[in-house]
Amino acid sequence: MPGNHGAVFARTLSALRDVRLRSEIRLTEVPAPTRIAPYAAALTADVIDIADPDEDLATGRFVVLHDPAAPDTWDGQWRIVTFARAELEPELAGDPMLGAVGWSWLTDSLTHRNLGWTAEAGTVTRVVSESFAGLADREASVEMEIRASWTPVGGDAADHLRAWADMLCTIAGIPPLPDGVVPLPGQRR
Question: Origin, by domain of life (predicted)?
């Protein structure tokens, strides 16, 4: 399909816009990065607490890039770049396996949806905040950030968005939906 990359990307963008996720997830299209690839789309997601819709349990960004030149580091024409952040239980601050567990939440989400990927890269960061002096009565807080990119192999960008949203719910502490349960359409902002 030489020369038809704009149409292919337009179909991908349309599919991303049509994705319906769990009711706890608020998905918003945002301006995409412009210098990384000729075609790009970006979405942000907030996982809300159903009991308190003003409370975000996790937040993230999902970017789909398309470059017909297939950059060597991508190992393909498509690339997904993601970010996810959530506050965790303070007792997890010292867990030496936290990074590996965070990364497995991403790969398990992709695997659970039978998706393939290659050329993956990323980091899992934990940030521990301790308060002192006038703020000493505040409990320590722990945030986890998962930054990841991969080249999709199998499935389309919408399938990878669904898998990433599953991971975002996992770090938010929301259990996965059982197999066969279809999420109700969420509100879009």
Answer: Bacteria
In DSSP notation, 54-93 reads EEEEEEEEEEEEE-TT--TTTTSSEEEEEEEEEEE-GGGT
Distance separating alpha carbons of residues 1 and 12, to the nearest angstrom: 15
* C-alpha to C-alpha distance for 3 and 14, rounded to whole angstroms: 19
What is the C-alpha separation between 108 and 150, in angstroms, rounded?
14
Neighbours of 174 (CB within 10 A): 19
Q: How far apart are the C-alpha atoms of 138 and 142, rounded to whole Å?
A: 12
Q: What is the mean pLDDT, run by run of 10 residues, along the chain of 189 residues? A: 78 95 94 94 94 88 96 96 92 83 94 96 89 83 93 92 96 75 45
Q: What is the pTM of this model?
A: 0.87
